[in-house]
Give the backbone structure.
Amino acid sequence: MDFKPVIKSRLYEDVVNQIKDLIRSGKVKPGDKFPPERKLAKQLGVSRGTLREAFRVLEVRGIVESKRGGGRYLKDFTGQNIYQSDDSLLDLEKDAILKIAEARKLIETQIVKKAVQEATEEDIARMEQILKFMQTATKEEYLESNFDLDFHLAIAKATHNFALYDLLEAQIQLLIELQQKYILSHSWRKELCKDHESILAAIMERDEQAAEMEMEKHIDHLIEKIQKS
């Protein structure tokens, strides 16, 4: 199978389109097994999370089948129009972001408590700087940046625990690839900034309980906004 690195903004869509093109050209036939996840992600130049999201779309469309412990295979899709427009792509993308948000709530409520304990003045200054950028950025600057996610990574970095930072960074990277900022309206930025201000205030006051509560409220707020988008 001949794959090439993908370059479009929604990376998993490029993966989906490449696989469909290979099917149409006959290079992949019903019953063929796809390469192992790690190898295929490397060939495509995407993360394994992005690859999984692409296969999830193809499975929903009945094009690919996953067998537990046995890899992924191309199904017999005779009679299906695999090029038919499918509005479920955005719904699948939103669903993935919501699941990541649920995981983040579990992880980040604990990370922020550790940050309260360990954050240095330098760490706090970095959070303040990111928050200021987010508050003053134009719409274009906002869409071209990841200020919101950078703020959360700055909190994780303030724990001074590389394992916690790496755990959150993996979730953040997947959100960037899923383009969360394009699903969230730019008009909601000020509301999210207020959440960040409350989180930062709790960290500066060294109040673990308040920091945990504000982080939980923030991610619940985020989930609510995504569901309404």
About this structure: Residues 157 and 165 are 6 Å apart (CA to CA). The chain has two domains: 11-74, 90-228. The chain has a mean pLDDT of 83.
